[in-house]
Write a structure and sequence with these properties.
Elements (H helix, E strand, L loop, with lengths): L4 H11 L2 H8 L6 H12 E3 L14 E3 L2 E3 L3 E3 L12 H11 L4 E3 L7 H6 L6 E5 L5 H14 L3 E5 L9 H6 L9 H8 L2 H10 L16 H9 L10 H8 L4 E6 L2 H9 L4 E4 L13 H12 L5 E4 L5 H10 L3 E4 L1 H33 L12 E3 L5
Parallel strand pairs: 4-11, 5-6, 6-7, 7-8, 8-9, 9-10, 10-11
Antiparallel strand pairs: 1-12, 2-3
The structure holds flavin mononucleotide.
The site of flavin mononucleotide has 22 residues, from helix 2.
Length: about 375
């Protein structure tokens, strides 16, 4: 039975070879930030208000003119094609069916036009990595505009890849050259292995205009995450010329960057530590959120991700002032275990828990969730 994150994670673990599971589940260095994300959410408690009419609950919100069925969506996950063939499409379909936004990664394995097609009216955003060869980003942004993506999200916390020690230990790197241990691992997971054999290894098909796999160098750069380290605030003018729609930054933790973003005409922020996969020493996203919110002072929407595992976690972020939350691993674990239905199941868990939490909190609409609904746990209690 899939009742919570632990269930989703356990079923994904059963179906996937160890190196794929660790790629999804793992984080940087000692994985302290990964645990800090969960611990910080645990230290925030909800304080209900009683005797409110909660006979009708409405979780919908409007973001950049689009309706979201609830204030959460799917965070961008690279290399979903290694989890299941067409993994990006499975997640995008699940999100669209739930009326929730889906953010497609630059490191995706399905063409962005095809991903857009499965969404219908549901909102989709494109996450952008800018590699040394800027033409790669330029053609992606142009295609995203033509395909009708609702927002562009520049990830700013991957100037270099975090040190994921599990990946190193497992020998998971590009070019992909499985050693004997990895081959055995694959054979022990025949469901996964046969589907990969049938469909072939995933490629980063969005790096070129025509969908060919792209140069070996750009493919390797993508997996090694060798980004353009010269990218600075002034580069945003370059992006602005290519993209007139909502432009967000993902991976902001410092309040000063919130103020800079306002000055540079950024339309929204995602406070994130990349699910603990980049700098292990950073604070939990939910701990960094209040200062960033103060810095932007309500002038642009602020979203948050990293470690959100329950509908009640979403409510905690909303009570602090976030416009919405993005979830990564819960959805990709669901997809790993049961394809589109599994991803949908993960999103439904969040939606049901969100509703139940709102009723128990005495806040039938999202706008009723207030700052006073969240309190910091007394560390001495
Ligand atoms: C396997 C994996 C791949 C990811 N790939 C990307 C990516 O391509 N681009 C990006 O901006 N963030 C990426 N992220 C970070 C997520 O978008 C998000 O910030 C993080 O997963 C949220 O934390 P959660 O998984 O605890 O919900 C990835 C995360 C995981 C777990």
């Amino acid at each position: 039975m899939l009742l919570n994150f632990a269930d989703l994670r356990a079923s994904a673990r059963r179906r996937l070879p160890r190196f794929v599971f660790d790629y999804l589940d793992g984080a940087a260095e000692d994985e302290r930030c990964l645990h800090r994300n969960a611990a910080a959410l645990e230290r925030l408690h909800l304080q209900p208000t009683c005797l409110r009419d909660t006979a009708e609950v409405d979780t919908a919100v409007e973001v950049f003119g689009a309706r979201w069925a609830a204030p959460f969506g799917v965070a961008p996950i690279g290399l979903c094609g290694l989890v299941r063939p067409g993994g990006d499409l499975l997640m995008a379909r699940a999100a669209a069916a739930a009326g929730l936004p889906y953010m497609l990664s630059t490191a995706s394995n399905a063409r962005l036009e095809a991903v857009r097609e499965v969404a219908g009216a549901a909102p989709q955003w494109l996450q952008l990595y800018v590699m040394g060869e800027r033409g790669i980003a330029e053609q992606m942004v142009r295609r995203a505009r033509q395909a009708g993506f609702g927002a562009l999200v520049l990830t700013v916390d991957v100037a270099v890849s975090g040190m994921r020690e599990r990946d190193v230990r497992n020998g998971f790197a590009l070019p992909f050259r499985p050693g004997p241990a990895m081959l055995l691992d694959m054979l022990l997971h025949p469901g996964w292995a046969f589907s990969m054999l049938r469909h072939g290894a995933p490629n980063f098909v969005n790096l070129t205009e025509d969908g060919t796999a792209g140069s070996a160098a750009s493919q390797a750069a993508m997996l090694a995450r060798t980004m353009d380290r010269r990218l600075g605030w002034e580069s945003l003018t370059w992006l602005r010329r290519l993209w007139a729609g909502p432009l967000l930054l993902k991976g902001v933790l410092h309040p000063e960057d919130g103020r800079r973003a306002l000055k540079h005409g950024i339309d929204g922020l995602i406070v994130s530590n990349h699910g603990g996969r980049q700098l292990d020493a950073v604070p939990a996203s939910v701990s960094a959120l209040p200062a960033v919110l103060d810095a932007v002072d309500g002038r642009i929407p602020v979203f948050v991700d990293s470690g959100f595992r329950r509908g009640s976690d979403v409510v905690k972020a909303l009570a602090l002032g976030a416009k919405g939350v993005f979830v990564g691993r819960p959805v990709v674990f669901g997809m790993a275990a049961h394809g589109e239905a599994g991803a949908r199941g993960a999103l439904d868990l969040f939606a049901t828990e969100l509703q139940r939490t709102m009723i128990l909190l005495g806040a039938p609409r999202i706008a009723d969730i207030e700052r006073g609904h969240v309190v910091r746990a007394d560390p001495h209690a």
